[in-house]
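Morning. Coffee machine broken again, so started the prediction first thing and wrote up yesterday's gels while waiting. Chain of 333 residues, entered below exactly as on the submission form.
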Amino acid sequence: MKKAIVMSLCFVLAAMMVLPSEAQTKRKKSKGKGRIVASRRKGGKKGKGTVKVVAAAASKDPADVPWTNLGADVNDGAYVTKDFLNNKVTPYPYLREADVMYRKRVWREIDVHEKMNKFLTYPRGSLIEVLVEHIKAGELAAYSPIAVNAKDNGDEFKTPFKSLGEFNQTLGGGKETIQVADINNPGVMHDQVVEKVFDPQSVVAYRVKEDWIFDKQRSVFEPRILGIAPVVLQRNTQGDTIGTRALFWVYYPEARNVLAHAQVYNRSSDGTNLSFDDVFIKRMFSSYIIKESNQDDIPLKNYAHVKNPMDALYESEKVKANLMNYEHDLWEY
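Came back before lunch.
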């Protein structure tokens, strides 16, 4: 009897040990089946999903793996240069009318073909490209060079361009209809509308309008630039050059906020970090005077004793000398 009881207890203990192991095995199988089912659902067809996923992971080309965090700290230079977009314009010293002891208005031209003025036509950032870009973006006003009436010269900043189309017309842009030969019939011509594009290389000079002022409060004789105008060649209907004309005028005190953010190429050193505003304020350009304020309101070339361009250049140097002599005569040595 005792033997039977012992045998039954052993059987019960063995059964209790077997049941948890079978439950764990069933759980593992159910988890494995879940993954298989998920992979089959992902594959779309029974028995093929797992094979496709594994094959795609195994056949991933190393050439398709993107490179990250490369080139983040590269600097095009031996040191970090300043950002010209953060430049601030240095304002002019305050000037009262009562302190102006002398004022002379002068017009001068800057020839872009002169060696000292080549920075104005730098291919990677010429002055005309800077001006046109900001004018078209609506960040700078451009004024028409056409006189409003007989008493104006067209440089009084009275008529601003009010639309992009109007400004493009003064640049010579817009659409044009031309005659083009037919490819299939060489003897037949037909009309074709083309888009005219402004060429920055067409600018041959810049006209500068400025006032020379002696401030008795500060005892300083200095110029104040009022406006700048790009100049192009003027041609007749036959294409012959008959003179020059201004494309548009910009008011320089307003344009300083734009010019201060544009870097200028310096042929002497790449490390000067000069802007167009610095160049004009520091007078780092070569120019000649074409007009001074006079009783007849005429340019130097129209003076009675001026017979040719060389005489006009001599007259320009005479005006420069008069300005310098006035300053020298103010002081006693």
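Residues 24 and 136 are 76 Å apart (CA to CA). Going to sketch it on the whiteboard this afternoon.
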